[in-house]
Structure formats: structure tokens, C-alpha cells
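Interim report, section 4.2 (structural modelling).
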Amino acid sequence: MTKLSVEILERALKRERAARKQAERILEQKARELYTLTQELQFSNKELEHMVWEKTSELKGVFENIIDAFVVMDLSGKVLKMNDAAIDLLGYTIANEPINLIDIVHPDEKQGIIDAFKLLYVNGSVANYQVKVITKEGKTRLVDINASIIYDEKDKPVAAQGIVRDITEFKCLENQKEILLKKLEKSNDELQEYAHVVSHDLKSPLRSIYALVDWIKEDNEGQFNEETLHNFSLIDITLEKMEQLISDVLDYSSVTSENVSAAEVDLNIVFKDIYQILYLPDHIKLSCIKNLPSIKGNRSRLQQLFQNLISNAIRYCDKEEGLIDLDYKDQGEFYQFSIQDNGIGIAPEHHEKIFKIFQSLHQNKESTGVGLSIVKKIVESYQGEIWLESALGEGTTFYFTLKKEL
Amino acid sequence: MKGIVFTELLDLVEEKFGLGMVDTIIENSELESGGVYTAVGTYSFAEMLSLLKSLSAATGISIDDLLEVYAEHFFSVVEVSYPGFLAQYNDPIEMLASIENHIHVEVRKIYPDAELPTFDIEEKTDKSLTMLYTSSRAMYSFGRGLMNKTFEHFNSSATIIMEKLKEDGTEVRFIITKND
Ligand code: HEM
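Predicted structure of the assembly:
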């Protein structure tokens, strides 16, 4: 062997040895890394196990303690799991006898539940599905089901879960409420009808009295003295007032929200009509401050509303120059109207009372104490409110709101 | 660069040219490691370049040709060391098309410090594949050698055209057409 090749071999050997040492070092290092890594893995594995255990027991707790009945079933409806509430509700325990939701549904609703299952499958969930089920004891219960599909990690549907709520009693109460409401409606109608009939029936004897009084006067013409004649005229006035009172009651009883028909009513025309109908003394000036709006409603009711308030203002005018102003403001959903006068005014303690039926403040022959209660009833049928501002001796302003569209 | 690329190169040099050549190129190169390599270590790519230059100078063979021959040898290392990777494929085009998104991804998992090229697929049919090679190491000829062997592995062959998009070879287009 030449000297050169020996040197080459020696160098190669040295390199090999160094490489081996290097490799051993690297491998040692790797082994240590592996060891610590395994340690860490073991630790985190334990932690994970613990967490999984915690989660499962947590879930188990939720499942068992949830107040509503909770059911897990396979896609054919076979019940796989149910919590205590579900067992209480249905009476079945799946440990002893396997049950299928479709089998315990009331026979009349079989097709319905099959359709609901299809819907659940297609949409992934069903909300507030109401169905009658038969419990183990044979009782029929109405339940409300909220169900959803459980998917596996590949998004494949594997099962369904549902919260089942017993609404038998609730439904019962709801039905009772409905029956009560119907009854109430009926007795309301009857009451209204009754008021109608009574007012009509009261009017005919009144007419008879009228006629009789007339006959007595005719038969005894020239034979009565002044005082008797005066008393007769008092009877006339009282009868007239009585008749007015009955008409007003009739009117009051017939104002309900149902009378509000939805025609467009131009309040300018209404105002003009009122102007013509009412007897307006020369010393009173009635004016409308601006062009009035149109409103959806019942024309004659609206006229009655404005007419009653305006005629009150005329009636209670005590000034040499009476002023009555009609104005309004647009408030979005509502119009707010005001009718202002410079009449006698109303004392604060009467501001509430005047809207109550048969509460006239003045023993006035024209006043029956029904007018303002009708006004209030009409305003309320437009979901509005009425109130007033007043100073004794200076005047009164009535404010009321009417909903533009009902 | 992974140590196995060095040890396998030196083994091949020893096999083809003798231990004297190994000694020569190590002695003639500026090597931080002193020429001491183990397959499980990691070394600077500059050492690889240095060794290839010395080998090219001593043998008169171009670096590109050396790399191509070396890659053919390296493929058999892959065949022995990572048979699992190859077993997943039954078509060479499919295998080459998945270097970027599968093979080298797995390689990176085994060697987080591996320096790998990128292969962007520009066009692919059943019989042809056009890919853009990008790497600061410009080892495109190494790639070409691996590609030839890949076809051979599936008892097939291909015509491979290389278009250098950059003079230094850091960006090369491979147009690979399978022979019938
Ligand atoms: C099972 C198959 C493969 C394995 C296990 C593998 C593994 C590797 C490894 C370990 C490296 C060295 C990385 C470093 O030193 O940091 C490398 C580099 C390289 N591989 Fe792969 N490879 C495989 C297939 C291929 C194929 C089919 C090609 C085809 C072209 C390829 C092209 C390259 C190239 C060109 C490099 C050199 C690095 C560069 O250019 O930047 N590899 N590969």
C-alpha cells in the first residue's frame, strides 16, 4: 500500500469515526427529545381523558336533569335514549321494551308524523310540531316537539334528537280562554241589543204620553188657568228631554269600533255640514284655522264627534263675543285636533267627570249628560285620547287624537 | 440540506470513482463540516455545491449531468427508505403531479428543516404534465433524474423538456410527455 493511499484511508477512517460520533450525538439528542415528548404526550393524554370524562358526565347530567323530556332516536324513529322526564311523560322505559315514536303516536296522526319525519330529514330540524301521543297507560297527551338531526363527522345523518313538551293542559287552558272570549263577545252583543230594545220600548209610551197631553189640552181649550198651562208646558219640556235622553242612550250603545268603516272622510266637508246644521247665534264666531285633513273612518260618527264638541262650546258661551276655533296638528300616526272656546270654562275637579255617562254639570234643558261620553267613545274607537285644558270664566280647549288609519 | 443527500452522494462517488476521489473532492472543497457527514444530520447547501464543483472539476463531467445521475441513484434510496410513498401511486404522471401537495408535504413532516423546491402545475392531462420548478438551489437536474426514475419505476418512459426561465436555473419549466 502506498503512503498516499494509507493517508487517504486514515482520513476516511477519521471522517467515518467523527461521523459515527456525530450520528450518535444526534441520535442521543433525538432520543432525549422523544422521551420528553412522550412524557408530555402522556400528560396531555391524561388531561384530555379527564376533560372527555368531565364533558361526558356534564352532558350526562344535562341529559338526565333537563326538565323537558329529551329523546334520542335513530332515523326510523326507534328510541335509543330517553331521560327521566321522557320516561315520566310516556311511561315507557326502553330498557324493557323497545319503542318507536311512530308506534306511540295517536292513530289519527300516523301519516302526519311520517311526513314530519321526512321534513326533519330534509330540513335538518322541525320546530313546534304538535302531535297526540298515547302513553303506556293508554292516556292521550298532546305534545310539542322540537327536533333536529344529529350528524356524524362526515355530515352524514345518524340520529335525531328531540325535546318533547307536554302541552295538554296548556292547550286546554287556551281552549277555555277562547270559549270565554266568545261568551264575552256574545254577552256584549246581547247587552247592546238590549239597550237598543229598551230605548225603543221606552220611546213608545213616551209618545203616548205626548199624544195624551195634547188631547187633554185640545179637549179643554180655554178652560185651563195660567198656572195649569205653565205646568203643561213644563210637561212638554220634560218629555222632550226624556226623548232626547233615550235617543242619546241609543246612540251611545251603538258606538263600537266595528262601526268604523274604512271610507276616506274629508273633514272640511264634515265641518261645512256642521256649520249649516247647527244654530249659530250672531254673537258667536266659529272658525276653522286651517284646511282639515281627510281621515279613514265612519262619516256620521266623525260628524257626531265634532258636532257634539262644537255645540257644547256654543251652549256654554257667556261672552258678548263668542269665539270657537278648530285646529289640528299632524303627529305621524295620529292627528291631534283642538276645539277652543272662550266660554264659561270647566272647574278642574270636573275634568274627569264630564266624560262619564249621565254627568251633566248643568241642569240645562238641552243637556242629557250623554254627549261627551259618546264623544269619548268615538275617540276611543279611533284608538285616540281626549282631554281638556280650561280656566273658569275664560274658556275651554278640548284636545283629542284620532288614528289616521285603523 | 439533509445529511442523507451528502452520504449518498459520497457513497456513489466512492462506488464509481473510488475512495481516492472522495478524498480529493473533500480535500479540495471548503467545508465547514470537514467532510464529516451522517445521514441523520443537517448541513449547509453551500457544502453540496462545493463538493459538486470539485467533483465536476476532477472528473470533467458537468454539474447538471452529475446531479442527474445522482438523482437516479437517490431514487433507489427513496424506493428503499420510503416504499410507502411510492406504493400510493400507480401512474407516474399522477405521482409527479402530487410532489408539491403530498410527497414533499409528508417529507416536511419527517424533516421540518428540509429545504424543498416548489413544483407548480401549469397543465395536466393523462399523458402530459407541465410544471414550474422554483428553488434557490437550482437543482433542476436532480429533479429531472428523479422524474426519469419515476417513469422507470412504473415501467414507463417520458420525454422531458426543460425551459430555463431564469439563467441561473432557479426557475425551470418542465414539459413532461409520456411515451407510448
Ligand atoms: C417519495 C418520494 C420523495 C421523497 C421521499 C423525497 C424527499 C426529498 C428530500 C428528503 C429532499 C432533500 C431536502 C433537503 O435536503 O433539505 C428532496 C429534495 C428534492 N426533491 Fe424530493 N422526494 C421525493 C420525490 C421527488 C420527486 C418525484 C421529485 C421530482 C422532481 C423530487 C424533486 C426534488 C428536488 C428537485 C429536490 C432538491 C431540492 C431543491 O431543488 O430545492 N422529489 N426530496
